[in-house]
Design brief:
This protein is an alpha/beta fold and 354 residues long. The chain has helices at residues 40-49, 62-72, 84-96, 112-119, 162-171, 225-238, 245-255, 258-281, 303-312, 336-353; strands at residues 27-28, 79-82, 103-106, 124-127, 146-150, 177-180, 201-206, 219-223, 284-286, 293-298, 315-316, 318-319, 328-332. The protein folds into 2 domains: 7-36 and 259-353, Aspartate Aminotransferase, domain 1 (Alpha-Beta Complex); 40-257, 3-Layer(aba) Sandwich (Aspartate Aminotransferase, domain 2), CATH 3.40.640.10. The strands form 3 sheets. It has a 7-stranded mixed sheet, sandwiched between helices. Strands 9-10-13-12 form a 4-stranded antiparallel sheet, covered by helices on one side.
């Protein structure tokens, strides 16, 4: 770091994105992208919008916000569009955490949560998952602070149902609960309908996974009018033009073809279950995933070794070095062709191991 870097950030450990190596052509199953392209309407709309990029984009994202609100059956002032869901999560750390309200989240979850906490200089508590790597809602009762729960949970794919989320919300109505539904398009129960009954609930979502728009950087939050107003104060104090004209247009185009998106997500869920069955036949064990990935381990080969050997064979998966999960790997669900190739390479590795 330079000698000019502020002392307040010198101990900051930045988030590590999934690797994007350029040395060869890989089957990329490490960053939870969709194997399907975005709907044609999204691409065409983005291209058309590029013709006016000499002008500022609409800071209110009016058309996009209206389409999101219509799709999720909420009001427009209950929606805030952002530059990926990472931005609205950061806004939530800024708006709803301070010296009196620490952040609370699981010890195994989305790796950006502790980074956001450190970046915004708020304390946080990592609450251990149960032995089966699931969240115990009871662990969040009686604790003071703002709760951040990825649902389905990042890395594990395990989802809470809405009754469990209601229990957390009701246990302390005076604290905000953020439900991060980045992986909410693949079979889990959404908490969005609950905002009608709970003014302390913020649900965040992204177009990156199920909507095939990871490169567009589009996310949004849905919550009470008051929570969204708070987040807008943060937005307009940091980056008013946060969603580009092309991305706004792509989002509108994708929402116009939501049926294709739903069909793609259903297909990914089917491939997930097929792949899970095939891996179980190869003596892998795994969590019960409701996301677009599987979280797997094998008694005959360590997580890091499997990751490394697959990479040598041209297949990328994601390995985490955290103590509790270092035997596991996260495998994104790709196309059937990609998953068949994965299984082929795993068979080669297991045979070599024996």
């Amino acid at each position: 770091m330079s000698r000019f870097f502020s002392e307040k950030y010198q101990k900051l450990i930045a988030y590590t994105p999934g690797e994007q190596p350029q040395d060869m052509s890989y089957i990329k199953l490490n960053t939870n992208e969709s194997p399907f392209p975005p709907p044609d309407g999204a691409s065409v709309a983005a291209s058309d919008a590029a013709e006016t990029m000499h002008l500022y984009c609409d800071p209110e994202c009016r058309e996009l916000t209206e389409r999101i609100a219509e799709y999720f059956k909420v009001e427009t002032d209950q929606v805030l569009a952002t530059n990926g869901s990472d931005e609205i999560l950061n806004f939530a750390f800024m708006a709803f955490c301070d010296e009196k309200r620490p952040a609370l989240f699981p010890d195994i979850t989305y790796g950006f949560y502790p980074v956001f906490a450190d970046l915004n200089r708020v304390s946080y508590e990592e609450i251990p998952l149960k032995e089966d790597l699931s969240v115990d809602p009871e662990d969040y009762r009686g604790r003071s602070g703002t709760i951040f729960l990825a649902n389905p949970n990042a890395n594990t794919g395990i989802a809470l149902d809405t009754d469990q989320i209601c229990g957390i919300l009701e246990s302390d109505p005076d604290r905000v609960v953020v439900i991060d539904e980045a992986y909410g398009d693949f079979g889990s129960e959404s908490a969005i309908p609950l905002i009608r009954d709970y003014d302390n609930l913020l649900v965040t979502r992204t177009f990156s996974k199920g909507w095939s728009m990871a490169g567009a950087r589009l996310g949004f939050g849905i919550g009470s009018r008051e929570l969204i107003a708070d987040l807008n104060t943060i937005k307009y104090s940091t980056n008013p033009y946060n969603v580009s004209s092309m991305t706004q247009a792509a989002g509108v185009g994708a929402l116009a073809d939501a049926m294709t998106i739903r069909e793609n997500c259903e297909e990914i869920a089917k491939i997930r279950e097929e792949t899970a069955g095939a891996l179980k036949k190869r003596n892998f064990t795994m969590t019960e995933s409701a996301a677009n990935f599987l979280f797997v381990r094998h008694d005959e080969i360590g997580g890091e070794e499997l990751y490394r050997k697959l990479k040598e064979k041209g297949v990328l998966i994601r390995h985490f070095d955290k103590e509790r999960i270092r035997d596991y790997n996260r495998i994104t669900i790709g196309s059937r062709k990609q998953m068949h190739k994965l299984l082929e390479k795993i068979d080669e590795i297991l045979e070599e191991k024996r």
